[in-house]
């Protein structure tokens, strides 16, 4: 019984994450300003990380959790670099 509930909840959460990622992709492509595009890209990274985590829970493999950690680190660095570029016009001083 609990295995079935876990499978259905993981499937539902994966579909919701895909819907959220499609909304974030729309914001990245159609954002009126660069700041909106950066926020959409950040939301897309978070959605991708959570989707990889749900795949890891479903498969029971630890490699997905390590991949999610790499996605989170790259997302943080790229968001900080893009924010600095939008504020100052250059990333490396």
UniProtKB/TrEMBL annotation:
Membrane topology classification: Multi-pass membrane protein
Main location: membrane
Location of the protein in the cell: Cell membrane
Highest taxon of source: Bacteria
Annotated transmembrane regions: 6-26, 38-57, 63-87
InterPro entries recorded: MrpF/PhaF-like (IPR007208)
Pfam families linked to this entry: MrpF_PhaF
Keywords annotated in UniProt: Cell membrane, Membrane, Transmembrane, Transmembrane helix, Transport
Keyword Cytoplasm: no
Family the entry assigns: Belongs to the CPA3 antiporters (TC 2.A.63) subunit F family.
Name used for this protein in its record: K+/H+ antiporter subunit F
């Amino acid at each position: 019984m609990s295995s079935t509930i876990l499978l259905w909840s993981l499937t539902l959460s994966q579909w919701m994450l895909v819907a959220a990622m499609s909304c974030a992709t729309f914001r990245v492509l159609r954002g009126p300003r660069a700041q909106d595009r950066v926020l959409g890209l950040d939301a897309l990274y978070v959605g991708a990380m959570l989707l990889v985590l749900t795949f890891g829970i479903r498969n029971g493999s630890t490699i997905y959790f390590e991949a999610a950690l790499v996605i989170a680190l790259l997302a943080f660095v790229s968001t900080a670099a893009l924010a600095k570029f939008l504020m100052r016009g250059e990333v490396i001083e």
